[in-house]
Amino acid sequence: MSHYFETPDQPADLFEAPMTLWGHEVTLLSSNGVFSARRLDPGTAVLLRTCDPPTGSPRLLDLGCGIGPITCALGLAVPQAQITAIDVNERAVEMTRLNAARLGLGERVTALTPDEVSDDERFDEIWSNPPIRIGKPALHLLLSTWLSRLSPQGRAYLVVARNLGADSLAGWLLDEGWDCQRLGSAKGYRVFRVSVG
Ligand SMILES: C[S@@+](CC[C@H](N)C(=O)[O-])C[C@H]1O[C@@H](n2cnc3c(N)ncnc32)[C@H](O)[C@@H]1O
């Protein structure tokens, strides 16, 4: 049995996953071998419920996109946004690409593995339900790497389960010199806004 954060070996078995994203009722295409394949993850739902979508024409990063619920939510809610969606699970990247295309967002969404993102790309906002289960050192490296790609006024919106170390992660972010505000707490999840301290 592989982890959701590895590209699965088994052939793809595709099915539909209905969900509501900031009021838009959509059906995403999903597959075995990806995170929360059958339904909108409750943590991601708390993130969307807690935060309003951005305005204007921001450059957005969906860090750890899975099948693309956050990317699709942002794409539908922010008509001028350009969204980069990344995941180490290549099947997740493919599903996000497919889902964005099915919703007519294909021209504004670029779904990639992390190593395919060009080094000089910067983002106004990062949105993430980060992969806590990769372990603390890997998670810290992941967040340091991508938070440093925020534009000077940039912000990141993160949702983390309380029982998976949300508060200690917030403490680590503060220790690293980031500003980290708790925006909300519901159903065992914390939502944080992270910006340059
Ligand atoms: C908790 S899931 C969230 C998925 C999706 N955003 C959602 O809300 O349903 C975290 C995702 O991060 C991905 N991931 C793990 N390690 C990663 C890394 N180093 N870089 C980018 N994505 C990673 C996993 O494959 C997984 O799809």
Q: Which terms summarize this structure?
A:
two-stranded antiparallel ribbon, alpha/beta, seven-stranded mixed β-sheet, 33% strand, binds S-adenosylmethionine, Rossmann fold, 197 residues, globular, 5 helices
SSE topology sketch:
Blueprint: E1 14-21, E2 24-31, H1 42-50, E3 59-63, H2 69-77, E4 82-86, H3 90-102, E5 109-112, E6 123-128, H4 136-147, E7 150-161, H5 166-175, E8 178-186, E9 189-196
The protein binds S-adenosylmethionine (SAM).
Description:
The chain is globular and about 45 Å long. By secondary structure, it is of the alpha/beta class. It is 27% helix and 33% strand. The chain has a single domain (14-196), classed as 3-Layer(aba) Sandwich (Rossmann fold). A hairpin with a 2-residue loop joins β1 and β2. The protein contains five helices and nine strands, in the order ββαβαβαββαβαββ. It has a seven-stranded mixed sheet, with helices on both faces. Strands 1-2 form a two-stranded antiparallel sheet. The site of S-adenosylmethionine has 21 residues, from α2.
